[in-house]
């Protein structure tokens, strides 16, 4: 349900405008009425798909975890800060910094190409952000032009709408047959195959950024580019005028298999810096692409507004479209001379010699046709052999890649299993964290390892604080506090040797104190009725005090402080005092 304009959430976030609405929730602009000047902020409303108690519990845990990640990422100047996150009526809300500017998609109209220098500048700007993000163990998972904002104040690019938070809305939806616990989130055209299978890696973000760069260079949307049916690689080079050096970098960023791409944003930055200023190549800007897109709707040219904010992809805007015109047919490049071509060039000479022989000896046209057919069959057979060898090489390379991937996955599973065993059996979370950090970044277990690390680091800090409190209480002789606080630490091989000596010493001290307090002397009248007096309730005086019962004779006198020692009590007659 859409939140009405004017409604206030969490007591001080007043909705002033709806930005977008989609399957994951809605995005609004709100004013913080508790801050001076009522500054604007972006409020994201996330609705879990499953409202069962189990589904909500999972969504709540994931929401809190991802919100803490966003808060940490907000330390970067080109990522919106997270101001707050909260839950109301079993629905979740994020409050983020309002970025005044426009999305990068507004700078990428169809048919218009960027210069190579512009593309390199954009890549370096976004890669520096991704370098920080990936170093935090986070994958964005939804890199696209709508999620990159051009900030109006300084014209820098800002990365918004991290895809992991959208898992909150997917919790409780069965993921049949899905090995990984990660939800497949992303945008077609910018999302590589492994991400579509729910197994994103850091260089999945590099693939998406590479596609944006190619979109800028070609003036075409990713789904307008051709794809090689055999390899799955994107064919884009013939649609752009770009230097060979940058072509190599972009092609490696968008390789079909993640094993063939750059591993980190740092590697891409290093490759771009090695290009220098781009050489002497000057790309030519053209008005329209050579590709005519299908099913294109009419639209108006996008005019960025100051109200555009980091609203995220909940309702992706329609890209600006101008109907391209087809340019004249480009001239074909000269074909290189290959061994096969050389063989074909000899064919006319061979045919000529055969014709001359037939003319001399009267063989007719049959032998000529037969020889030509034989030549064509030989060429076709050679091509088939070459194609088969190529397929075999590719199949072998694919098997090697798959074997390496299996090896990395097995290593990741083993390291994560060892880490969990260390955490659960020994309780040494520091050792468990160290093992989890050894999980390879391209392993299927990497994301689960990062989640475990974050959880263990938080628990470890909590236990360290508790242990410090126990030590402080022990050193100060606060035995009851030692006993109470020590019980909050788990009993395992790691903590027992550290805590047990203090815990049992405290129990012994408390027992001694309790025993001393329990030592009391009672006086009893050994006459009918057995009147029993607790000295602690008798008056304390230095003068004799006679106490008698109905059947008691004699006297009971206290010459000392009451209840201290039995020999301070003097008794006669039927009275006697004893340590009971």
UniProtKB/TrEMBL annotation:
CDD domains, alphabetized: STKc_PknB_like
Q: Which residues cross the membrane?
A: 349-369
Record field: compositional bias (Low complexity) = 323-335
Q: Which InterPro entries match?
A: Kinase-like_dom_sf, Prot_kinase_dom
**Matches recorded under Gene3D superfamilies:** Phosphorylase Kinase, domain 1 (3.30.200.20), Transferase(Phosphotransferase) domain 1 (1.10.510.10)
Note down the stretches annotated as region Disordered.
297-345, 380-423
EC number(s) given by UniProt: 2.7.11.1
Q: Which UniProt keywords apply?
A: ATP-binding, Kinase, Membrane, Nucleotide-binding, Serine/threonine-protein kinase, Transferase, Transmembrane, Transmembrane helix
Which stretches are tagged as biased composition: Basic and acidic residues? 380-408
Record's compositionally biased regions (Polar residues): 297-311
Enzyme class comes to: transferase
Output the Gene Ontology terms for molecular function. ATP binding; protein serine/threonine kinase activity
Q: Where is the Protein kinase domain?
A: 13-275
Cite the Pfam families for this sequence: Pkinase
Q: Which reaction does it catalyse?
A: L-seryl-[protein] + ATP = O-phospho-L-seryl-[protein] + ADP + H(+); L-threonyl-[protein] + ATP = O-phospho-L-threonyl-[protein] + ADP + H(+)
Name of the protein in its database record: non-specific serine/threonine protein kinase
Q: Which organism is it from?
A: Oscillatoria acuminata PCC 6304
């Amino acid at each position: 349900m859409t939140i009405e304009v004017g409604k206030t959430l969490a007591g001080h976030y007043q909705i002033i405008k709806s930005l977008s609405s989609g399957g994951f929730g809605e995005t609004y602009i709100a004013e913080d009425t508790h801050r001076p000047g009522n500054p604007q902020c972006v409020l994201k409303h996330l609705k879990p798909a499953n409202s069962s108690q189990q589904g909500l519990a999972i969504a709540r845990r994931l929401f809190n975890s991802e919100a803490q990640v966003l808060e940490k990422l907000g330390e970067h100047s080109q990522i919106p800060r997270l101001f707050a996150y909260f839950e109301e009526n079993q629905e979740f809300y994020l409050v983020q910094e309002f970025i005044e500017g426009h999305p990068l998609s507004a700078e990428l109209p169809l048919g218009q190409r960027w210069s190579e220098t512009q593309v390199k500048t954009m890549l370096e700007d976004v890669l520096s952000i991704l370098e920080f993000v990936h170093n935090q163990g986070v994958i964005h998972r939804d890199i696209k032009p709508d999620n990159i904002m051009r900030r109006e104040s300084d014209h820098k690019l800002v990365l918004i709408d991290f895809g992991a938070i959208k898992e909150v809305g997917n919790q409780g939806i069965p993921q049949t047959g899905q090995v990984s616990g990660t939800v497949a989130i992303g945008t077609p055209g910018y999302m590589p195959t492994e991400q579509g299978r729910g197994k994103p890696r850091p260089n999945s973000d590099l693939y998406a950024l590479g596609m944006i760069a190619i979109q800028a260079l070609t003036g075409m949307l990713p789904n307008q580019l051709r794809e090689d049916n055999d390899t799955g690689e994107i064919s884009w080079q013939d649609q752009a005028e770009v230097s060979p050096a940058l072509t190599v970098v972009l092609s490696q960023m968008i390789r079909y298999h993640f094993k063939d791409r750059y591993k980190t944003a740092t590697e891409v930055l290093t490759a771009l810096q090695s290009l220098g200023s781009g050489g002497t190549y000057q790309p030519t800007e053209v008005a329209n692409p050579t590709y005519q897109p299908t099913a294109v709707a009419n639209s108006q040219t996008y005019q960025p507004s100051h109200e555009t904010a980091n609203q995220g992809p909940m309702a992706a805007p329609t890209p600006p479209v101008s109907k391209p015109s087809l340019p004249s047919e480009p001239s074909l490049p000269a074909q290189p001379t290959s061994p096969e071509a050389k063989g074909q060039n000899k064919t006319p000479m061979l045919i000529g010699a055969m014709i001359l022989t037939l003319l001399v000896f009267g063989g007719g046209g049959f032998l000529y046709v037969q020889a030509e057919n034989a030549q064509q069959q030989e060429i076709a057979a050679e091509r088939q052999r070459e194609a088969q060898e190529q397929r075999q090489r590719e199949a072998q390379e694919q098997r090697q890649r798959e074997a390496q991937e299996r090896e990395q996955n097995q290593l990741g599973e083993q390291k994560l299993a060892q880490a969990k065993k260390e955490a659960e059996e020994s309780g040494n979370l520091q050792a468990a964290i160290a093992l989890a950090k050894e999980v390879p970044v391209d392993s299927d277990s990497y994301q689960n390892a990062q989640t475990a690390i974050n959880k263990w680091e938080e628990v470890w800090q909590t236990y360290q604080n508790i242990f410090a409190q126990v030590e402080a209480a022990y050193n100060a002789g606060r035995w009851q506090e030692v006993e109470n606080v020590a019980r909050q630490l788990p009993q395992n091989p790691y903590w027992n040797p550290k805590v047990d000596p203090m815990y049992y010493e405290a129990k012994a001290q408390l027992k001694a104190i309790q025993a001393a307090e329990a030592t009391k002397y009672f006086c009893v009248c050994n006459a009918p009725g057995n009147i029993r007096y607790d000295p602690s309730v008798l008056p304390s005086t230095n003068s004799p005090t006679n106490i008698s019962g109905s059947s008691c004779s004699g006297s009971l006198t206290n010459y000392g402080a009451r209840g201290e020692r039995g020999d301070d009590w003097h008794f006669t007659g039927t009275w006697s005092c004893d340590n009971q």
